[in-house]
Amino acid sequence: MKSWKVASAGILTASILLTGCTSEQDAVAQKTETKTVHAEKSTDKTKITSSKKIPSQLQKPLKIASINQFSIGTFSSQYVSGVKKQVEEFGGSVQVYNADNDLSKMAAYVETAINQQVDGILIDHGRADAIAPSVKKAVAQGIPVVAFDSDINIPGVTVIDQDDYSLAWNSLRTMAQDLNGKGKIVYVWVGGFTPMERRNVMYEAFKKRYPNIKEVARFGNASQNTALDTQSQMEALLQKYPNKGDIDAVFAPWDEFAKGATRAIQQAGRDEIKVYGIDLSDEDLQLMQADESPWKATAATDPADVGKMQVRFLYQKAAGEETPQVYSVQPHLVEKEVLPSSKISMSEMGKYVEGWGKSDAAESPWMKTLKEASK
């Protein structure tokens, strides 16, 4: 298994800026012996054929539950697409549960997955105070669990994240540089979500680092129509601040916020206002690439790549391999100026942003064989 990296340069920056951020705990998952067998390829498509290189625990198709706090926007849909694609490539099946931002429903879905005796559980977002008891129950019953963008801290559960501190700081620092350290900004934010809380930590540090950049307004809420709601709120704010110089930039640490703010600014013809965001999807790319788009930069990871990585960690756990307690995905800064004039998709981003979508984390030698055997 290739080595994994837990820390990044952005986190080192965050640790210098902040004193009070809690550190993640070391990996505690125990390493167990991997057994293998050999057999001829079967013509039965419902079974994964045996191979000397495939761990014995994976000689049958795995049944996976993917439990998501919400499914809002194209980032979430591309993340789920990545999860499904990787599970299917490994010959397994995945049932996706969307809790519609209801944490009690999310916990209930974990219980459902346990009762259905799934082979593994993927957690997307969620808060420990609501779902930790159910997750602990799954671990106690020997069900591998891997979480994404959650504050869960349970021995044996691998938690991956987008390095939210680095994401926020990369975007904020770019905005500060473009403003030359002075200006008036709008902050679009909502609490109650682990990644948003972490990004807000960096925003608070940013205000201390750049005291001449003043927040003139703040708003934000999460709903099934977040982008549209944000657009309406931004339109009202632009009417309140109608003059050039009233607002210089918008910091929107979620692409749904950035989309809404961008469209409002475009429709109002306020091209002097620039948008700096977090996250990226195909829809976001179209907005950024548009002529005279105010969306200047975003810090992001590839959501589909994150979903695939999470699945690989889960399969490693199912195979009895050691996995880290925490893993931070290396984020990228994507600036409008590096994008081509012709429209591109997320699958083409690697041509313009080095390292995009090419993570080899959680790769084991037997995975290639498993894919071949599962065709």
UniProtKB/TrEMBL annotation:
It is found in: Cell envelope. Keywords: Sugar transport, Transport. It holds the Pfam family Peripla_BP_4. SUPFAM superfamilies: Periplasmic binding protein-like I. It comes from the Bacteria. Residues 69-322 form the Periplasmic binding protein domain. The keyword Transport applies. Belongs to the bacterial solute-binding protein 2 family. This is Simple sugar transport system substrate-binding protein.
